[in-house]
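Morning. Coffee machine broken again, so started the prediction first thing and wrote up yesterday's gels while waiting. Chain of 410 residues, entered below exactly as on the submission form.
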Amino acid sequence: MSLNVKHLNGDTTFLLTFSPKEQPSQSPHHQQPPGTFSVLVDPWLSGPSTMWHPKFLSSKHTVASCISNLSHIPEPHVVLVSQDKPDHCHEATLRQLDPTSQSTVILAHPAAAKKIHAMKHFDPSRVHSLPAYSDRKPDSVIRFYIPPISLGGLPGEATIAFIPAKLDVSGLHNAIGITYRPPSSKVTRPTNFSLPTPPLNSTFDCPREAPRPQTAPYTFPPTPPESPNQRISTISSSTATASEASSPLSPATSASTNITAPSHSASASISSMYSFNASRPVPEKTLSLIYSPHGVPYSLIRPYASSHLVSTAALPLTALLHSFDRVENPWWLGGNVNAGLPGGVEIAHNLMAKYWISAHDEDKDNTGLSVKKVVTRKYNAEEVREMVAKGKGGTGVVVLDCGEDLKVKA
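Came back before lunch.
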């Protein structure tokens, strides 16, 4: 199982690819392997990013994107738009997506979703506003059912949660949490495993290829309940070693788990159904990622971490995508723009992030009245490493060049 983070521009456009096992970086004809879940984040490839009027703010890339069109990457399952500002919600780039696609869903900040609907380019049923996360509202987490890779396997699940800052006049600050539990191709049956007898008219033909994850929000088939067992993610990589420190948010241990996987139609004649009591947790780990390019206080993330990340056994955090540089405007222009190192280090420490990847730190060509008062404190990777080294968890600090990627294996 792995997470591949590819930096598509010099700023904050990423392609996140979660895979159940090590896969080639690209399949023939841009097809993704079964069980893969991919997320395209804040796509902006080329052209200016203008807010209201060029005299107020106009931004241009100083580093060319590694692709010229979104058709050059595999069709993502989710396009994630974290805010309505044009460097995140870039209309010209979004229009490169196939408007007729039934495989991709767009999940966006509420103001961004409104803008995307106004484009009248996409099927309205494929564009959804992200609900604010609440640990008291299970429906505030968007869940994606990932079918088993083959007959007899367990389904997987991906989740997305939106955590907006409170009283944020600028509308810049939020965090988006993503988790991925892979489907399995084979289940090791415990001794008390029982496979229900199918109806007489049922058939169990094995599909040639597992279907893509079902991506229509709020309409997913039921997902097996999460195990409360102690099932902590342990990430290994050739460039860093995972911390052995146990998280203060570690799940409680349970003696047994009751799992019931729903029947799922992989083709017109497929049914995969099983029910058993397991004395040990299912040996599939969960990857987790926080994307917060402008940053939020950790106090906003804490309820999500202590509830959702614990219940899905998704700690320590696999990756944090957050700015290094701290950017400030006068209060009357919105105040803090990017929390940078001072804000990100608190998140990295508390969630024991395996990797902290620089996001939204491009030295763009910015012009206009709104940038005349901007004060930027830049931090290089070594300064970030020194700060994170003061905490526990052994967080790796990564700056990805445009077109470069990082693969984290579990």
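Residues 298-311 form the longest helix (14 residues). Going to sketch it on the whiteboard this afternoon.
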